[in-house]
Specification:
By secondary structure, the protein is α/β, with parallel strands linked by helices. The chain is built from 17 helices and six strands.
Length: about 350
């Protein structure tokens, strides 16, 4: 064994740098294995794979700072540009290039957290979401200590290659230190976060999400290997996603009536069209609460949700580019009556 390896072990132990300690121990085991001392190599590897290391390794039930959440098997509709970025993450992680820290930024409802769940499924990794309620403490200096403990536990997972750490809505501790009320306390907390990220085990994938990117601490942004912007939906993207949601919920609630042109006109009345999270809730509620004996009722409910009023004003419906047949569906007024009243209003 090289003298340098012994010095590194002592150094990492004194710094409480478990990731470095473990990495050096694995290298030592490899050296013994190459030299033919297989038993000693296996003994070192056995020590490093159980709780007999100098800091106990972490299992999922050991910490109050994490909550294990399930990955998602549902379809996730994202703009092509974002999808390509997610595939880039998969590619980078698979090649073990030391690219393992990612920041997902975007407005609420853009699919940031759901994208993490999809990433978990693709990479076949478990997600452990950090409970910031347990991390942030009102006592002076305690938040800093909690963050330090948090990263020690991250570096002590038994199988770090199977883990994604999710800092969902990291804004609570990552906002610009110059814009906080308690500069020193938040400065210490952010500094502890910076240090933790610098020494984090590269086999762990860390994903943080934020919808306040413009206020994010710049030093912390630089710690991430990549920042992915989820605000890249076009109107066409959102319209296509809306149709996917409609098809899904019509099948779920066993409604057969569908008029995509009418549906697109109603959705198009919104300016701007909401991001997928809000769009999904809007369509799901309209379909779920509709009259099961009236296959067109969900159109009226959707119109009401979009406009805040019932579709009864024929002139307004006409101005919104609905056809006479579509006005009949929305207002439940016979087509002949709609045509006559619209003609009379034009003659006035």
């Amino acid at each position: 064994m090289k003298k340098k390896s012994i010095l590194n072990l002592i150094k990492y132990y004194s710094e409480e740098n478990d990731a470095g300690f473990r990495s050096e121990a694995y290298e030592i085991a490899k050296d013994f294995d190459k030299s033919g001392d297989y038993q000693l190599a296996e003994y070192i590897m056995a020590l490093m794979s159980n709780a007999n290391t100098f800091v106990p390794q972490m299992n999922e039930s050991d910490s109050a700072l994490f909550e294990k959440i399930e990955s998602s098997g549902d379809s996730l509709w994202l703009p092509d540009s974002v999808t390509q970025d997610i595939l880039g993450i998969v590619h980078a992680v698979a090649h073990k290039a030391g690219i393992n820290k990612f920041l997902f930024q975007g407005s609420p409802g853009t699919g940031k957290t759901e994208a993490v769940k999809q990433l978990s499924r693709i990479l076949n990794r478990d997600i452990y979401m950090v409970d910031f309620a347990a991390v942030i403490d009102s006592k002076l200096g305690q938040t800093q200590k909690n963050i330090s403990s948090l990263f020690k536990e991250i570096n002590n997972f038994v199988h770090p290659e199977n883990v994604i750490i999710l800092f969902d809505e990291i804004d609570a501790i990552a906002l610009d230190r110059t814009n906080t009320n308690d500069l020193r306390e938040m400065g210490r907390a952010t500094s502890s976060m910076l240090k933790g990220m610098d020494y984090m085990d590269e086999r762990v994938v860390l994903v943080a999400t934020t919808n306040l990117y413009e206020h994010f601490d710049k030093a912390l942004i630089r710690r991430f290997d990549s920042v992915i912007d989820f605000n890249r939906y076009t109107k066409g993207d959102l319209m296509s996603i809306a149709e996917e949601f409609l098809n899904k919920f019509l099948v779920k609630f066993k409604l057969a009536s569908k008029d995509i042109r009418l549906f697109r006109k109603i959705i198009g009345l919104m300016e701007p069209i909401p991001y997928p999270g809000d769009l999904k809730n809007l369509i799901r509620t309209a379909v779920a609460f509709s009259d099961p004996d009236d296959g067109m009722d969900y159109f009226r409910r959707l119109y009401y949700a979009v406009n805040g009023k019932q579709p009864q004003n024929l002139k307004e419906l006409k101005s919104q580019k609905f056809t006479i047949r579509e006005i009949e569906i929305l207002s439940r007024i016979p087509r002949s009556t709609v045509a006559r009243e619209l003609k009379e209003s034009m003659d006035e």
